[in-house]
Amino acid sequence: MGLFDRHAALAERYRTARQAGIDPVGVEMQRVLSPTEAIINGKRTILVGTNNYLGLTFDKSCIDAAVAATIAEGTGTTGSRIANGSYSEHEALERELAQFFGFRHCMVFSTGFQANVGTIATLVGEGDYLVIDADSHASIYDACKMTAATIIRFRHNDPTDLDKRLRRLGDAPGNKLVVVEGVYSMLGDKAPLKEICAVTKKHGAYLLVDEAHSLGVCGEKGRGMVEEDGILDQVDFIVGTFSKTLGAVGGYAVSNHPDFDLLRVTTRPYMFTASLPPSIIASVRQALRVVQARPELRQKLWHNVNTLYDGFANAGFTLGPEKGPVVAVHLPDVDTGLAVWKALLDNGIYVNLAVPPATPNSTVLLRCSICAAHSDEQLAHVVDVLSGIAQELGVLPREPLRAAAAG
Ligand SMILES: Cc1ncc(COP(=O)(O)O)c(C=O)c1O
User: Is there a cis peptide before residue 357, judged by omega within 30 degrees of 0?
Assistant: First the structure.
């Protein structure tokens, strides 16, 4: 058997799609013009698939901070913090993040993926239990592969099922760590954190919340779903990323646990990888200030979420269960998904196509992520174009639903 033979079925499907000129995983952004536009295939294209929730990638103050840090301290750190030392800015960012959440400790990682894998797989080991939501991100599933703890999955966003599974463990020795996301990345739905936290605490388990899609998006001060659901003082660990709202790359974990800093000498994805460069740390520090100083960006984001979600719903699409920074449109099958995705791109609109096994319940999704910088006109155009394509391909009836109902 050849090295890649086990991927033969996938390779064949990928080859067929590419031969038809459809390559959702190989899109080249020839030039990114702003948080909401890029040149793709030589065409000016509206970006609705970037996770750039507040549009901070082009924020002048963040760019200036990154440029100044590069000039002052160079392009990279060229090593890990335990072997090659921390820059003062790494430590400053950790203090600022801890303060932002009101926690004692913070660790910065080189990606959000590493923050999840590193933290989760180090916190629990042999004899412990890692209890995760079934719709968890790949980084949480990879953490499961890297720990000797027993893995238990509970039904997505179902505190009753979590309760049942924790009850079954009874007084079994070993620590129990429950891991959920604040906002789920595929459907944009929020976790019922208050209920999940109550169940977790009732059974003496620890709670870790991945706020990758909720930092700067949810909560009065942008501190995520833990703030929105009022559990900031009860959650044990918050993990997140700099690659979405904060417009850069990197990840973090915060906690009040007195021994949290031990992770610095036990977590391999922190210890054995180069630390973030000065430019990234500087732009993230500035982006965190912008999140706190400009709540109007969050309000604009939610205005845009309402506009796109309501626009799609009125057009007759089946959507994710609730409004969130990700608006997911259900499509009937992979072939239709590929056709709709390609037609959108040909019409100057870029979204993400999500297919099994990356999606919950093997659904096919057009995953649209909203940006505070989208204009009403851009979003209305996206609704119009997708509706036209969906009618053309038989996903929606030819007559607009409301007109059909009236007739
Ligand atoms: C829920 C969730 N957690 C973690 C990550 C990883 O973040 P990063 O891009 O910083 O590696 C992502 C990114 O897609 C995510 O959606």
Answer: yes
